[in-house]
């Protein structure tokens, strides 16, 4: 099987195995674009997978008669697998709305009299396009990224530009899928933009403990937009994260802007639920963990500034100033935690000191949730202690027995 | 790094900028872990006109732990030990919060000078005097302020010590060794002779 699949390294001119490569080094062979995990049953990336989630038809993929193997124009004379009117990618491009090959993702220009040379110029009516067949064909991954070296000779379909993600990934023959993609992309884009705006607005929020900004500050030289300009002004969201990191660091060191925390993991806020004072996550966690031996728990559990007691803190990559945003953040945090199994509960083998108010999931190994239990807190000489769970039903049982005894 | 040096540095810059607050901090060499706070005696109190020095030791887990503060200058105050200068103030103990800074802590000490808390004393003798003999307490406190907390020029100190019969060179050397403390210099001069 593998010897009929084009080596992806060879395709990009980088295969070092030469003749020993188990994959084909013949441009005639197709490249595998099918996700191998999908074929095995499950792909962790789901819809986000960069490979195709399609089960290839044995009759088409890799077989010499398959249109996937087409590489030369003209191919109009080749019979289509369905036996309908012959359609080549090129002619489909000319005929179908939207054309698969007319997208601006190609640099390769066809000669002006190309159609005449092939004798297609005289075709009076547009050839019929077998939509059903083309809908099954995968998109060219290279064209998806913006440029396919094979241009018009590419055996794969070339998609259309998705304005949100900037990839040529809209399948021309799968309108439903394309619409869904465009919608999802637009939503993601809107969310990203919102996050970016939030990040920008939280850049100058200072931690009350270390007195530093938790996030990298917006560079003061942003005014240089267009020239050397700060990365922030050039839409950092679109760049590689690592590149962004290095770039921003180098730049801001040179202009002496406070870069916030050294480690990226530290660039987070610890949002207190009861008040609106800002702290970075590391600082507020350090304080609440009881670094001081002298301080009572009621002191460490309260806000260092206003001393309002918060029962928990929520990590956030941006500062929330609006109450609705904060509520959504807390809700989101709790929902996320509820999906993580509680290590104290240990699938029913242990006991969690937080009982029913634990944020983590209390479920046994089969996923069945724990029955709700009541915890009783009683004031003892030492303070507050947690007793064994006591149920109302246990009192009722006792009450039942007592009444029965009385009646007897 | 034993303590958050960046934060201490920021606090120092902030204190330096706000000179009107009546508190200040001096560096003891290059060590950020050991500083000297300077508090001006609050007006309309027996400590008015005095300049009190506070020894500040930044603990390794600062700002999660309070800095250790102790009066270097002798103070007659119910909440300050007359023997070793220890301060009894809740925010320097269990009520410390990392949002407090050296400046706010020094301001709190300054506020403590103007409003003593005899119910929670550090020095029982002073507290007793404060409760029973308010006038005596005030005069003693004022006397201690005059005697220990007044800034005296080095020249005056030298002149006074020379008048006592010591050589000028010895006096200057002794003063330099004791960091300008006239009494310590006197003791050294007496001990050495």
Q: What would you say about this model in short?
A:
The complex is a heterodimer of chains A (408) and B (193). Helix content of chain A is 28%, strand content 4%.
**Total domain count of chain B:** 2
Class computed from helices, strands and strand pairing of chain B: alpha+beta
The neighbouring-strand order within the major sheet of chain A is 1-2
Percentage of residues in helical conformation of chain B: 40-55%
Low-confidence stretches of chain A: 58-111, 119-124, 217-259
Structural class of chain A comes to: mainly alpha
How many β-strand runs of chain B? 4
- Order of strands across the main sheet of chain B: 1-2-3-4
Plain-language structure description:
Chain A is built from twelve helices and four strands, in the order ααααααααβααβαββα. Chain A has helices at residues 8-11, 36-40, 89-95, 114-118, 131-136, 141-145, 175-201, 241-254, 281-288, 297-300, 323-337, 392-407; strands spanning 269-272, 313-316, 377-380, 383-386. In chain A, the strands form two sheets. A two-stranded antiparallel ribbon of chain A has the order 1-2. Chain A has a two-stranded antiparallel sheet with strand order 3-4. The radius of gyration of chain A is 32 Å and the shape is elongated. The N and C termini of chain A lie far apart (84 Å). In chain B, α3 (124-132) packs across α4 (134-148) and α5 packs across α6. Chain B has 193 residues and is α+β, with helices and mostly antiparallel strands. The radius of gyration of chain B is 18 Å and the shape is globular. A four-stranded antiparallel β-sheet of chain B has the order 1-2-3-4. The longest helix of chain B has 15 residues, at 134-148. Classes of the chains: A mainly alpha (408), B alpha+beta (193). Chain A binds chain B through residues 208-212, 277, 283, 286-287, 291-292, 294-296, 299, 303-305, 307, and chain B through 4, 6-7, 10-11, 61, 63-66, 93-100.
